[in-house]
Amino acid sequence: MHNSKLALTMEKNQIGDYKFVKTLGQGTFGKVKQGIHIHTQQKVAIKILEKRKITDVSDVERVTREIHILKIV
């Protein structure tokens, strides 16, 4: 997806086929939003990371570890 299109859809609280419903939590690197698939109505959690807050190698390692954990759950 082209970055300007992504930014435009984020302004509408939507990325692709997922619409943001509400913020579930906030952490060091970003937010977790409740989302809903606009066609199936399936509820999901969407983690949005702010790249500018990931500043050093230890931050990258923490994010990578979390992604690995989420893949196996």
UniProtKB/TrEMBL annotation:
Family matches, as SUPFAM superfamilies: Protein kinase-like (PK-like) (SSF56112)
Keyword ATP-binding: yes
Domain of life: Eukaryota
Classification via InterPro entries: Kinase-like_dom_sf, Prot_kinase_dom, Protein_kinase_ATP_BS
Source species taxonomy: Eukaryota, Sar, Alveolata, Ciliophora, Intramacronucleata
Entry binding sites for ATP: K47
A single cellular component GO annotation: cytoplasm
Sequence ranges assigned to domain Protein kinase in this UniProt record: 18-73
GO MF annotations, alphabetized: ATP binding; protein serine/threonine kinase activity
Keywords: ATP-binding, Kinase, Nucleotide-binding, Serine/threonine-protein kinase, Transferase
One GO BP: intracellular signal transduction
Entry protein name: Protein kinase domain-containing protein
